[in-house]
Amino acid sequence: MKKIGILFGKERSFPEAVIERINSKKIKDITAEPVHIDKIKQGESSGYAVIIDRISQDVPFYRAYLKNAALCGTAVINNPFWWSADEKFFNNCLATKIDIPVPKTVILPSRDLPADTSEESFSNLSYPLDWDGIFSYIGFPAYMKPFAGGGWKSVYKLTDMDDFFTKHAETGELVMMLQEEIIFDEYYRCYCIGGKHVRIMPYEPRNPHHLRYVADFKPDKERYALMEDIVLRICRYLGYDFNTVELALRDGVPYAIDFCNPAPDAEITSVGQENFDWVVETAANFAIEKAEAQTDAKDNLTWGEYIKRSSAKKKLY
Asked: What does the alpha-carbon distance between residue 138 and residue 208 come to, in Å, rounded to a whole number?
């Protein structure tokens, strides 16, 4: 019997629905359940053919557990090794190399010195930074957000240089990105599962959180195909089995705004019934597909084109 486990935190509707949907299909020798951990021994199997990870980004203990599980043959959704290495600024850098439009972006050192460092730790950093050059490149209004992590935590909209310095002073040891604002005509949040299944959802980030999926943007077939191609290209290069990509359309051009969301919101109360039904069904089918293909004691992870081409010394783009 191959087990599919869901590793999750306080969310309930999505993991419970995926477990119920997988089991309702009555696939021979495949069952689903919440992951159960009572001990972790190095180099020993987790007992799961597949684990869908919804929480390890916030719990380092779980990330270590998943790496050990993957080493022993578990197909982890998403690859915990790549997820540990990835962050939003790198993703933007990669996008510039694979012809994905993204906002102009720079990364900034933390406002406060990181723990266990001193000014001498930053001997290679110019002081002051070329603020005039940075602000000229990005322009205002602009957004400032952490270079890693998800959600809308510590995200600032900035109106001018003085506003930047005031708000940057609040960010402590966070490493922040400063990013051009894309004044958009339409906005979409797009699920991508298995590097092949895409759901493009009209989204209005300026609405209150519970109303963000209440939007009436209607892309034509050509624009839909263009956005689908961008979403697939991003997720295939990054190697994420489960991700969301946010696209802001300015003058008909889709800009990838945020595309490092490997544990994306899938709660029914926020995404709505139709989107929820799609993501549950698609995630369940993909997890079953991974379980059927899984082989014990082998690498069953998904590795993105960036890693595969780099290791094979192939041209990236």
From this structure: 27
∠ at Cα 224 (218, 228), nearest 5°?
135
Query: What is the CB neighbour count within 10 angstroms for residue 231?
Result: 27
For β-strands 242-250 and 186-193, DSSP reports them as antiparallel
| Nearest-angstrom CA–CA distance, 88 and 57 | 14
- The pTM of the whole model exceeds 0.90: yes
What backbone phi and psi angles, to 5 degrees, belong to 272?
90, 160
Q: Exposed, middle or buried by CB within 10 Å (0-12, 13-18, 19+), for 23?
A: middle
How far are the Cα atoms of 5, 46, 65, 241 from residue 39, in angstroms, in the given order?
16, 10, 10, 27
Can you list the domains of the chain with their CATH numbers? Answer: 2-78+285-301 (3.40.50), 87-101+183-261 (3.30.470.20), 104-180 (3.30.1490.20)
d(CA 275, CA 298) in angstroms, rounded, equals 34
Task: Give the whole-number percent of the chain exceeding pLDDT 90.
Answer: 91
Please answer whether residues 106 and 125 qualify as being in contact, where contact means their C-beta atoms are separated by less than 8 angstroms.
no
| Rounded Cα–Cα distance for residues 34 and 8 (Å) | 8
Alpha helices in the chain (DSSP H): 13-24, 60-71, 80-85, 88-97, 131-138, 161-168, 221-238, 268-271, 273-293, 305-311
Distance in angstroms (rounded) separating the CA atoms of residues 208 and 5: 33
Q: What is the DSSP letter of 49?
A: S
Distance separating alpha carbons of residues 217 and 228, to the nearest angstrom: 15
Query: Tokens standing for 35?
Result: 């992951």
- Checking if the pLDDT of 312 tops 80, the result is no
DSSP-H helix ranges across 203-260: 221-238
